[in-house]
Amino acid sequence: MSRIEEIILCATLKLPQYLRRTIIFFITHTIIQKKCRTLQTFFLQKEFFFNMLKNRFLFILLLTLSTFIHCAAQDVKVTARLDSNRIIIGDQLQLHLTITAPTEKSVAFAPSEKWALKNCEVVEEKSITKKIEGKQALYNQDIILTSFDTGVALIAPIPLLENDSIILAQTEALQFFIDSLPVFVDTNLAFKDIKSPMDGKDIDLEKTGHNNSWWKVLLWIVIIAALLVAGGYYIKKYALKYWRERKAREQKMKLKINAGSVALSSLKELKHKKLWQKGQVKDYYSELSMILRTYIDNQWDINAKEMVTPEIMEAISDLDIEEHSLEELKVILETADLAKFAKWQPQIEENERSIKNASTFVQSTDSVEKAKMAEQNLKK
Description:
This protein is α+β, with helices and mostly antiparallel strands and 380 residues long.
């Protein structure tokens, strides 16, 4: 209680009786509205309590009114519920806590470290969920409990605090039972006598083989582990490498077989776009050059996409390609370079001749390569 409140209450003792009764009634009503029980205790401890006993009617009226207002103010509800009332030792169960309170109140349960628990402990505190329903707020929280001793576990009432200090309500006390692990005994088996200790001189280690049996087990474990390590190393270094190389060769062979058809299909699609007719000469020669470079890469495994024109011509000069086909390819690539980098505008006849000569180069070289592949397959 603050010093100011104590002074006001003490001052009322010096006023006339009718004024004192009015002020006491007003202050009592205010105290109950704020739900402050400490001031009510103060009333009971002061001298004016005995003065009020002189007027029993007023005392009973104030006590009844305060009880009515106090009960009306109890708009906070708390519940606690366990998933089960019986667990096996070491198992876990959940404690569900629920709070219903006005939205303007700041309420929370007391920290779990301050709970009075017997024969159980808190494992985890899950996060609190909040749901607004009109002027009421619904809070839910799950607590995971466990126990490592058999018997009965008790959970004392958990207080609900407002502003971390005032106790508004508390849950009911809970309990659950902890059972030990079941032990199954086969009662159908016959009882046997306990054997007496064996004499050391009667044990023949050489006959039983117990003296070196564990060495044999350890030796076999070492041998099996060594074989597994060696096998894993071989698979990683040789088998996987061979499989990757074989897959790469198959992929290259597949690209080589389809190199001609893919290039001719791309040239046909480029012709239908009519890029140079729309004034997009640079784009036209860029696609034409890329089609031929991709064809050379797939057909002869030459990285033409990363080479300039002189490097490409030097790389394919030793291949089985006719001289006039090489010359036509050189003219197409050089024209494409001028159009892309020098913004040169070729004549209409050159544009049409370039794509026509590109198709001729692809058809002639692709037929030669397919004939070589067929001849190699016959030899195999």
